[in-house]
Backbone:
């Protein structure tokens, strides 16, 4: 059945790929983005699609959101700010909290379902070797601004369930973990692999935060989109929290080595280690993170199809073929600013 799906953050990595998939399935898509983080180039191929309606708006603008949400049957809320490494502490909290409230108010008025994009960062400093959806959410000192993104996402999850209880808004929570894939956004927000690829293709040192031995999961955006579509199509996913990621994980320094090799560089890998103290006072970075995706397999029948080696190979080639276009979409970008 055709639905009218509103996607906030549509010009971001997940949002742009999800919008294409929804259009391919015959749905009507209302995309919302203010291009503060997303890139126009990410959605330029679908802007002329007759079933795609774009609204350039900020998610914390209630009037703009109300207009965009008219007739929506589902709202997928992806728009958010991430970890504030250098600044933006207050802005991260405001945009993520107020934006989620604006989305839920739209859903209440339109009687729409909400799929809320959360993150594996909510597991914070939990010492467990693997995190399931019922694992404890353990955050650090509230004076450390690094946790602002996680705190705002935890608040957003609670707000979703509060609206479900008080206003009967159907909600589902997706905790994305290490999603990467083709995107014209180039910054640490799109993941370390993109920074490394750009560095390797332009023969520059790859900036690595900390000592690089911290491990992270990496899941291709095609798998993230497929899992999200299954959440949309599964009525029993209502009221559930689901981890979406992959079993593949790698240390950051080994990721740098992998990218350097796949890029075909002839010299030895050039690494530039950046101290955490350059980000902010007391910056905390979990040493290891691995999410348990058993629930996605059992509840949704979803297993990631893209292995890490193949996914990174595709990512390197995508960058190589579009390097000039990526530069044009990220005027002023410098690797020096990423460290």
Residues:
């Amino acid at each position: 059945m055709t639905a009218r799906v509103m996607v906030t953050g549509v010009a971001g990595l997940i949002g742009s790929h999800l919008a294409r998939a929804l259009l391919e399935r015959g749905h009507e898509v209302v995309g919302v983005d203010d291009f503060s983080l997303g890139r126009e180039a990410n959605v330029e191929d679908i802007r002329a699609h007759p079933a795609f309606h774009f609204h350039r708006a900020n998610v914390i603008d209630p009037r703009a959101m109300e207009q965009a949400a008219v007739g929506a049957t589902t709202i997928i809320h992806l728009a958010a700010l991430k970890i504030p490494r250098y600044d933006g502490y207050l802005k991260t909290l405001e945009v993520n909290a107020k934006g989620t409230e604006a989305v839920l108010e739209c859903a209440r008025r339109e009687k729409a379902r909400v799929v809320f994009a959360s993150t594996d960062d909510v597991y914070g400093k939990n010492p467990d070797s693997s995190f399931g959806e019922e694992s404890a959410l353990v955050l650090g000192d509230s004076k450390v601004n690094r946790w602002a993104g996680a705190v705002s996402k935890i608040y957003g999850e609670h707000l979703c369930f509060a609206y479900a209880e008080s206003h009967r808004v159907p909600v589902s929570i997706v905790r994305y973990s290490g999603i990467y894939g083709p995107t014209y956004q180039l910054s640490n927000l799109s993941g370390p692999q993109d920074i490394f690829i750009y560095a390797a293709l332009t023969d520059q040192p790859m900036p690595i935060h900390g000592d690089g031995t911290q491990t992270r999961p990496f899941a291709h955006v095609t798998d993230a989109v497929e899992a999200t579509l299954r959440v949309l199509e599964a009525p029993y996913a209502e009221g559930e929290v689901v981890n979406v990621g992959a079993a593949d994980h790698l240390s950051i320094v080994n990721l740098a080595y992998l990218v350097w090799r796949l890029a075909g560089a002839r010299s030895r890998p050039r690494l530039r280690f950046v101290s955490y103290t350059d980000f902010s006072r007391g910056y905390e970075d979990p040493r290891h993170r691995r999410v348990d995706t058993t629930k996605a397999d059992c509840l949704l029948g979803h297993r990631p199809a893209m292995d890490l080696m193949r996914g990174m190979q595709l990512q390197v080639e995508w960058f190589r073929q579009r390097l000039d276009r990526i530069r044009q979409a990220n005027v002023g970008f410098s690797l020096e600013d990423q460290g």
